[in-house]
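Handout, page 2. Input:
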Amino acid sequence: MAVVHAEEMPYFSGCEKYKYKKDKKRTCSNERMISFLAFNVEYPEEAKIAGAEGIVYVSFIIDEGGRVIQPSIIRDIGYGCGKAAIDVLKKMPKWEPGKNNGETVRVKLNLPIHFYLKSGVSNPLNSDDYKITWGALKGNQITIGELKVNLNNIIMVRDRFGEPVSFGVLNLSYKRKNNFQTATSNGILNKKQKKIIKKAKAGGKFYLEVIVNDGNKRIKVGKEFDLVE
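Output:
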């Protein structure tokens, strides 16, 4: 039987270093889960064609071993989005399980998964008004050598007129097979992000995401790179 509330709720993978800093660990867990979803949710073609947008609400259990089990849909918007939401749950790495009285317990979680093309928050893979540039990198296919040469170059965001705009948070995610890593900085690549880049291998994918403030809107801007030989 799963509980809905535990003394210590589950943490998404990758925040173990904050063992004694619970607030930072919770923030890390939330950020890593958001980055994982942004990197792994596949917008169904059927939904794109129909212009379907909205939120799919899902439920799942984190068992005593940190595994995601019993995924189910609470509310769907149709057009294949529900299946896409379940598929991304099945891709999740093991979590750090929840605890009661120091003992691991099963915890049931509900999660909203957003499917938006253009509705206040721009699609991170297709932002028309803003573009990410990183040194001399061009296109979406880059070699390991090109990536490492750009390691110390500045990542910038430019508007539709080519003018640079400011942003305060930079999320970097890397995925190759079952290996998923992500790290957040204040806009400049930090040591952890550079470490992820240095260990990257061909066949992997990098995803950069920033948040730009445009008036009253907070707009996601992203760029994806495929790593080749």
